[in-house]
Amino acid sequence: MRTVRVGTRTSALAMAQAEAVIAAMKSKSPELDFEIVPLKTRGDRLADVPLADFGGKGAFVEEFDRELLEGRIDIAVHSAKDVPWRLADGLELMACLRRADPRDVLLFRKGMGEDEIRIVGTASPRRELQIRELFPVQCRLLRGNVPTRIEKLRSGRYDGIILAAAGLERLGLNREPDLEYRYFSPDEMVPAGGQGIIVVEGRRGDGLGGELAAVCDGNSLRELETERFILSGLRTGCHEPVGVFARIEGDRIVIRLLTEKEGAACRGKAQGRVSERLSLARRLMDEVSGHESE
User: Contacts by 181-184 with C-beta closer than 8 Å and gap 24+?
Assistant: First the structure.
């Protein structure tokens, strides 16, 4: 019996996501055994510093890349939105589970009206740009794992905080009785590329391709590929407020893109056949960002 070593961050959410991947793989490949290998990343250790100050999203995956390339783990489980558009040589995203709720959520204390919210916690330039369009608020840095962020809200350090709906659902924190939840539609707040998707990173040609393909959700994969195509085309990191969200229904796809121009949000939308998704994405980049496709 082969034992698959699964790298994951140490937070409760990361562990839940790793267990979801393991459960999916066991259901398709019961002959496999699994060992969870927890790693604390640079992004986790520097939990009170803006990501842009120490390397951006790569701070959550670089340790896993090294462990994969040096053979100490076989696969790594990530939130897709934390994975930079450029991967290390020899590595690839080998599978993704079915996408969960991609929306952003504003949490605030029960009894407070939306018009009373003045201080909002977030570490995301994308969320900050869009929440300021919706509410007259000031944004302050908020990092840490999901339960820690919620406790900071309860303590009164913030009037509201913005989190991903998928993470709240995976942790069972989407119905706290003392909190209100204001879900934003993708038109109100364009999600981050990959939001709501759990991905599996591995070594190219390592022999697990068939087992991982068996648990991969086709539509979620195509949505993610479309979003990452745009992120790579725009050469985005964590400094820029960029949102991109692709949604497939039947043989049709709708792609939303958000960028910033002169301090204001600039949005666009393209739709067409799934088979035309990359050409639609190129046209959308041209229209919204001024990017010139090759």
Answer: 181/105, 181/106, 181/107, 182/105, 182/106, 182/107, 182/108, 182/114, 183/103, 183/104, 183/105, 184/103, 184/104, 184/105, 184/106, 184/130, 184/134
